[in-house]
Structures are given as C-alpha cells and as structure tokens.
Amino acid sequence: MRVLFATSEAFPLIKTGGLADVSGALPKAIRQLSTFKGDIKLVMPGYSAVLAKLKHVETIANIDVLGETCTILTGTIPGTVLDVIAIKNEALYERAGGPYSDENGKDWLDNALRFGVLSRVASLLCSANSPLPNWQPDLIQCNDWQTGLAPAYMKLLDNSTTKSIFSIHNLAFQGNFHANWLTRLELPAAHFQINGFEYFEQISFLKAGLFYADQLSTVSPTYAQEIQTESLGFGLQGLLQTRSNDLTGILNGIDTQEWNPELDTHLPKNYSNQRITGKSAVKKKLQQQLGFQIDAHAPLLGIVSRLTHQKGLDLLPSIMPQLINQGCQFVILGSGDKALEASFTDLAKRFSDQVSMNIGYHEHLSHNIIAGADIFIMPSRFEPCGLNQLYGLAYGTPPIVTATGGLADSVTDTNDATFKNNTATGFVLKSVTSASLLTTIQRALKIWKDKTDWRKIQKNGMSREVSWEFSAQFYLDLYKKTLSTH
Ligand code: ADP
Q: Is the CB of 407 under 6 A from ligand 1?
C-alpha cells in the first residue's frame, strides 16, 4: 500500500499547532505497524525552515503548477526514515513569518495560490502526469483546508484512480477565497456551485475536501458527532450529515519519543509513573526560572495554548486574583488575542512572583510547563482533539477541561465513582463559564492537597494508552476501508 500524506506543516520541520504533531507522528506510527505492508511519503511546501532541516535532499523535477514553476525535491525528516516530497518555490514559500501569515499575524494575501499549488502538486502525484512516475499512491490522506482542493483536482481534472481521505483537524479554518481565484486555481467553473466547492459564493478549500474525498475523518469520535450539528458545524453540518456514513472519528495519539517524561531532553530531570519524584525537581526549577517562590506546597497551574476564543482562556483572568490569594502560581505560554495577552501581562505585572506570562512560541518552555505544573488548564469552547491534555495525562499533570470534542474523549472527571474504580484522570467543567472554571479548579486543588489521592489520579492518567500505535491501527483500518470503496 502506497500512501501520500499531504499536509501544510509537520514536526520537527515546521509547526504552528496540533496538525504538525499529527503529521510528524502518524505516518511514522503507521509505518511501524507490523500489519502495514507499504510505504508513506509526506508532501508539503518547501518553507525555508523545511529546506534547512530536510536531510538527503534530491531534486526530482521542475514542473509548472498553476502557472508557477516549482521544483519537486525529496528528502527525509531528521532522525527518521520518513520521506518528504517538498515543493520548492522561493516566491511562494520562502518568506519571513509563519506558514499562513506574516510576522504581524496577518494572513498572506496569496494563500489561495500557495495552498492551491500544494493541493495541485498532491493531486498530480496521484495522476498519470506525476513527477514521481515510479511511485503511484494507492491512497492520499489530505489534512485540513490547505490540502482540500486535492480531492477536487483528482476527480475533476485528473480522473485519478487513487483513493482519497480528507481529515479534519479543525473545521473552524475553512480556506474561503473570492471567486476571482477560479481561473488562477484552474478550477472548472461548472463545479462552483452548492454540489461542488462553492460555499456562500466563495471558493472553499475545506468544502472541496469534504465534498470530493472518498472518505472523511476527524480527530476524535465526539468531534465527528459535534460537527454534524448547527452549533459546531460552521455551516457545513448539512454536507457532513449527508456524508455521515463516510465520516470516522479517530482520537490522536502522542509521539512518545517527543513527549515522554522518561526521555524528554527538555527537562532538568526525567521521571516516570513508577518513579515520579523527578517531577518535583522540574517544578522547582521552573519556579526558580520564573522568579516564583520555590515552594512544593504552592500549586502551580500551567497553560500552553493559542490564545483564541476557541481555547476559552478568556474565562481565566477574572478568577485569577482569588486563586492567587489562595497561593496559586500561574505560568502561561501562548500568543494570539491581543486583549487577552494584555490581561495576562497585566496580572503578571501585578503579581510578578505568582504569575508568569510568556508571549510567543517556545518548544522548550512548553515541555517544562507540561512537566513542571501540577495542573494543566484547557477550558476550550470546542476542541477537535487537543494534544496538550494528552501530554498532561502522560506527564502526571492532570488536566482541567471542558466536555467537548477530544477533551471529552480523553479526560475522565474525578468523582466518587471514577475515583473508586481508578478511571479518574482529570477534572471536567460543568459549563463553559468563569464560575464553573473556578469551582472546578477549587475541586482539583482540594484533592491535590491530599498527596495519596492526587497520586492515584496521576497514576490513572500516566498509565492511560495515549501512544500513536493505538490510533495508527484505526487509521490503517480506515485506509483499507477506503481502498475497498467504489
Ligand atoms: P491547536 O492545534 O488547536 O493549537 P492542540 O492542543 O491540538 O491545539 O495542539 C497544540 C500544539 O501546539 C501542542 O503541541 C502545543 O504544545 C503546541 N503549542 C501551542 N502553543 C504553543 C506555544 N506558545 N509554544 C509552544 N508550543 C505551543
């Protein structure tokens, strides 16, 4: 079985969020399954960071794609045998700033073309005109809107025999563009309609993926249900309902080489479920680095997140002073909403020895927060899967979450019954409000004070199966099901 995995980011080459973690880990995990006989290659844009990090790079071909001259390169992800097909076009991809936006966070104006080219190259690799003619994929897995046009090109332009899966990592990002792009994207105008890639008079990359792919998947079973409802379907619930039988929810795993307290090279001390003592050394070092009082008895609450409405962290600032009064310490890492950044910065100024606000993206600090904090806070309004709560579970840092998407599927609230039967792994809010967040944090803190009870919850989380191996098997089943569809 030959599988092409099309993505706009992949760890460790380039990362803005969970999609990169999945793209870096899932293909690797599938390859390692003893039941998988075949090969997987990634296809992605050749951003500067990607070109700098790829190993064993070879030039395969120069091709014209949507009027752009692109060089197709192959290489491998450092430390792995995973092959990557990178699209090199300096004007499109080698820019200062992020994969989707400039240094000020403003989306690149030509994103339709940048990800149109990615989608078109992915589809060409599945066609008779492939730049890699000796490697014809049986199946392509496309991920999020950036690759959504690929299934459309395959069906409408190439008559491709390769089967396709479109995976939704977040339905909120749709890649909607003005109809003026139709010609430049070489999309047949006849399909710019409700039964096609049109979405309220715009070209929707996401809808194209949902409409034309043979099978659909998303990153948790609960989110698979939620996106078929009006409240979380972002206007696409009707289409998703009609494709309900083709939609599978598979919870993400975690890369246990990257996210493992026993091996994590970011930490000052490693630890495990059997030998947890090292965790307090990580907390101590973190408290010291942040300028907090070094105190094992002060609860340290951690946050690593994009600061957007989705993540629900705007519920936190108003209740922080009360918790700070009780002796809590807060370490926050993230960026996004400017007003929210300002609220946390203000609190960090007022309570500098109990609140640390770190604006930006720091891989090293994120590992130390997940490991060093006592409790991880993630009150998302919606969460397709979420990875940080999984990291929290694996690192003995029980998460406080809302009952949505992958959070609902991965965290079990602590109550009398779940505590007794050893399934309690965290704390779930009753409603998405500041009051409920406060009550839930207080509930967690009360148990945290009893070290024996807390250890039990940590143990439950740390022994939970979170590795990709488990989820990879479900993807392989989905691949087989997709190959058998007509
Ligand atoms: P999303 O993809 O919606 O942002 P996820 O929880 O699925 O949320 O994945 C987020 C990933 O990005 C995690 O690996 C998380 O640790 C990482 N991350 C988010 N913000 C930061 C940051 N400011 N610094 C470092 N890592 C971050």
A: no
Q: Is 305 within 8 Å of 357 (Cβ atoms)?
A: no
Is residue 268 within 8 Å of 285, Cβ to Cβ? yes
Kindly give the distance from the C-alpha atom of residue 72 to the centroid of ligand 1, in angstroms, as a whole number: 29
Helix (H) or strand (E) holding 204: strand 202-204
* Residues 117 and 51 reside in one and the same domain: yes
User: Using CA atoms, how far apart are residues 459 and 273, in angstroms rounded to an integer?
Assistant: 6
Tell the residue nearest (CA) to atom 20 of ligand 1: 305
Are residues 118 and 212 located together in one domain of the fold? Answer: yes
Residue 287 in domain:
yes
Q: Residue 366: CB within 6 Å of ligand 1? A: yes
Query: 375 and 227: one domain?
Result: no
Domain holding 99, by residue range, is 2-253+469-484
Give 66-90 pLDDT, tens digit per residue.
999 999 999 999 988 899 999 999 9
Question: Is 361 a pocket residue for ligand 1 (Cβ < 6 Å)?
Answer: yes
pLDDT, residue 320, reads: 98
Same domain, 214 and 294: no
The mean pLDDT value for 458-475 works out to: 93
